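@here heads up, posting the sequence + SMILES for the zinc ion run so it's all in one place. Ping me if the SMILES looks off, I pulled it from an old spreadsheet.
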Amino acid sequence: MGFEKVLEKIFPGALGEVGFVQKTYSELKPMGFRSENTIVSVCICRDEISQSVRSIIKHVWGEAFNLSSLAGMFFAGKTGIKAAMHHAPITDGKERYVFYGMSHIAIDSEGRIGTCRRTGRQEESVACGALAAFQEEMAGGRLDVSLDIEDVEQSLIKMRLIKKITYGRIPELLELTKITLSAIQEDLENTLKGVVDTEKSDYALITGIQVHGPDGNYVWPSSSYAIVNRERHEIKL
Ligand SMILES: [Zn+2]
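bot reply: prediction finished. Complex C-alpha cells:
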C-alpha cells in the first residue's frame, strides 16, 4: 500500500498544510479573529521538517509565537502562554489568541509509518525521532523516567506520556503519536483555562497531527474550537 492509501486509511480527511492553515483562518475570521487583531502561537516538534507549517501560519497570520518542544509537547507552560498573550494587539478593548498544537509522524512513499528521507543523507530517518527513542527505551525494558538535566525535554516527554500508557504495553509509533496529541491537547487546554481571562479575551485552540509525506506535509485535523464571548464554538476542518 503506497503513501496515499495509507494516509487515507489512518488519517482520513488530512489536508495539505497550506489548505489546512487557510481553512483555519477562514473558519476563525467570521468569529472575529484576523491577522491584524490576533496573536498566534505554534506548538510543534523542533524537527526541521515540521517548520513548514509554522512558516505558513506566519505568512497567513503574521508573526507566530513559538511554544514548541521536542515531539510538539507543550512544556512552555503558563509563562510561555502569558508571554504570547501579552504580545496580543488590543482591538476594541479585546485581545485575541489562536494556538496551534500538533504531534507529528512520517509516512514514506511505500506507506511505511515513521519513515522519511532527509536531504543529503542516504539512510532512512524517523519522525518523530523523540517518540521513536522513547518507544525503543520502553521496548528495551528499562525505562528511565528521572529528570536528566542534560536531556530535559526528552525526560519530560517520558514523564508526561508514561501516565497515558497502560503498564507493560508498548504502543506502536502511530498510537504513541495519537497519545502525544492528546497530551498536547490536555496540557494546552488546562493551561489556557487557568490563564486566559475570557471576559476580555477570545481564543481558539486548533490541534492535529502533522504528517510528512514523500511530496510534502499534511495535517490531520483533530479537536479544534474557539471561545468567543465566553461561548465555545466547535471548528470543523
Ligand atoms: Zn519530532
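MO: The helical segments are 3-10, 17-28, 51-61, 77-85, 129-139, 152-161, 173-195.
MO: One more: The first strand starts at residue 15 and ends at 16.
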